[in-house]
Amino acid sequence: MVETKRVSGFNENACTRCGICLNKCPVLQYSLDKSKTEIKRLIEGKETSEVLFKCNTCFSCNIYCPEDANPYQLILERWNDLYFIRGAPSLYTFVCPTREPNIWQLLNIFLSTTEKRWILRWIYNTPDPDKPILLIGNYTHLFPFIIGGSKLLEYFSPVDLIDHWEGGAYLYQGGFLDVVQRIAQNTKEDFDRWSNKKIVATLDAVQYIYQEVHPKEMGVNHHQEFESFQDWMLNMLNSGELTINNKLDLIVTIHDNCYSKVSNGKYWKAPREIIKKCGCRIVEMEHNKQDSLCCGFGAGASWVRNISIPFDIIYEGIKKFEEAENTGAQALVSYCGGCIYLLWATRELLGSKIDIFHIIEILRMAIGEELNYPDDHIERAWDIIAIITYEWIISLFKPNFSIKTVSYDEEKSTFRPRDHIFLKLIRISFNSALIRKVYRKFFLLMMRILNTR
Ligand code: SF4
Ligand code: SF4
C-alpha cells in the first residue's frame, strides 16, 4: 500500500476568528462572543464547553463561514484527537463491517430470499468494464428493495462491498480521519483493479468523498469519473431515456442531508427537479438546504456516553419529524440512503404517520414500477430497531475500541451471522402491535432519562 499524507480541510490562515460559524449554527446558536471564544479554543486544541459534544456534524457552518475556512473540518480534526484519547464507543461496532456483530452481518438473519439473492449478486459481481459501476453502498444495502429488481440497474454493473465503508463517508463525519485515509487507499486498489472509467454512487456523500475528500484531504487520487445517482437520474429524464408514465400527484417535503451542503449546496437542485418531474409538489421545511437539520445520525458523532447514543440520535431526529409534519406534506423524501434507515426507525419509534420515500422510489413509481410500500419499510425498520436494541445491550458490557482493520478477511466472515437467539426473540416480539406500542413508550421514557443533549 502506498503511504499518503493527510491534509486538514480547515484553513487556519483564512479564519479571522469572527465566530459567525458557531453563531449561525442551527444547533448551538451561540452568542457571537461565546462563538469567538469557542472557535479559538477549537483552533488551539483546547476542550470546548459544548461544540464537540453537541455538534450534529451537519456541514452548515462551512456555508456560513464568509472566509471559506471550513470550520466543520476543524471540528472533525478535534474529534479525531478525541478518538485517539478515548477510542470509539462500543456501540459503534454496529457500523463497523470489520467487527462483530455489525448491522450488515445481523441483518442477514432477517433478509428475505430475494434480498439475499440481490445482495450476493452485488457482492460477488466482477464489474463489467463496458458499464458504469453503481456503488450500492452500506446503507442502501439495509433497504435493498429500494433499488433491487428495478430496471434502473440494467444500466450499471452494481457493486456492494461493505468494507468500502461508503468510501469512509460516515466515518469522516465522526472524525475518524485516519481510518478514512486507510479506506481511501483500499478503495483505490479495488477501483484501479477494475477497468471501469465511470463510477456512480447511490449516495451523494460517497461521490463527494471520492471526488473531493480522498484527493484533497487524504492524499489519494482516483482516476475514475464519479457521478451521483441523482444527477444520473435527472440526466436520464432530461434525455428522454427514462419517461414518466405515472405522475404521482403527491405533496412532499424534502430532507436535505448533511453532505448535500458541500460545495455550496451542489446537491440540492437535482432531487427537486426529479421530484417535480415525477408530478409531486414540494413544500419546504422551516430549515432546509443550508440550514437543514440532521436526521439524527450526527448526535452519534458528538457522543458523550455510550449508553445514551441511540436516545440522543432519536431525540435529534424528532426535530426533523416535527418540521416535516408542520409542512402538511403527505410524504418526506430523502435522497440519502443513510438518512432513510434512521428516518424509518424514528418514524416507527414515534408512531408518526408521515410517509417516507427514498427519491429512487419516487422515480420508480413514476416510471411505472410497483413497490411493496410501506410494508417492506415498516418491517425493515423493526428489524433495525431490534438490531439497535440488541447491539445497545451488548455494548453496555464492552469497552471502547480502536478500528484496527478496514478490510474483511478473505472469506468475508463478518458477513456471516452467528446464532443470535436473543436478537431473534427481540424481533419476534416486535411482531406484536402491543409490544411495539409498549416499546415506543419505553424508548421515549429512556430518552427523557438518558438524553445528554
Ligand atoms: S457542523 Fe452543523 S451542528 Fe456542527 S457546528 Fe457546524 S453548523 Fe453546528
Ligand atoms: S471559521 Fe469562518 S466563520 Fe468561523 S470564525 Fe473562522 S472565519 Fe469566522
Question: In summary, what is this structure?
Answer:
By secondary structure, the chain is of the alpha/beta class. It contains 20 helices and eight strands. It has two domains: 65 residues, no CATH class; 344 residues, no CATH class.
Structural class: alpha/beta
The profile of the biggest β sheet is: 4 strands, parallel
Strand content: 5-15%
Residues in helices, as a percent range? 40-55%
Low-confidence stretches: none
**Shape, per Cα inertia axes:** globular
| N/C terminus separation | 41 Å
**Strand arrangement in the largest pleated sheet:** 2-1-3-4
Average pLDDT for all residues: 94
The whole-angstrom Rg is: 21 Å
* Count of individual beta strands: 8
Discrete helix count: 20
| Elements, N to C (H/E) | HHHHHHHEEHHEHEHEHHEHHEHEHHHH
Oligomer: single chain
Work out the count of structural domains. Answer: 2
List the bound ligands: iron/sulfur cluster
Molecular structure report:
There is one protein chain. With 453 residues, this protein is an alpha/beta fold. It has 2 domains: 20-84, no CATH class; 90-400 and 418-450, no CATH class. It has 20 helices and 8 strands. It has helices spanning 20-24, 32-44, 51-54, 60-64, 71-86, 103-107, 113-123, 169-173, 177-193, 204-217, 229-239, 262-265, 269-277, 298-301, 309-326, 337-350, 359-366, 375-395, 421-429, 433-450; strands at residues 133-135, 157-159, 198-201, 225-228, 251-255, 281-282, 331-334, 355-358. The strands form 2 sheets. The chain has a 4-stranded parallel beta sheet with strand order 2-1-3-4. Strand 7 (331-334), helix 16 and strand 8 (355-358) form a beta-alpha-beta unit. The radius of gyration is 21 Å and the shape is globular. The mean pLDDT is 94. Bound molecules: iron/sulfur cluster (2 copies). Residues 22, 25, 27-28, 55-61, 72, 75 line the site of one iron/sulfur cluster.
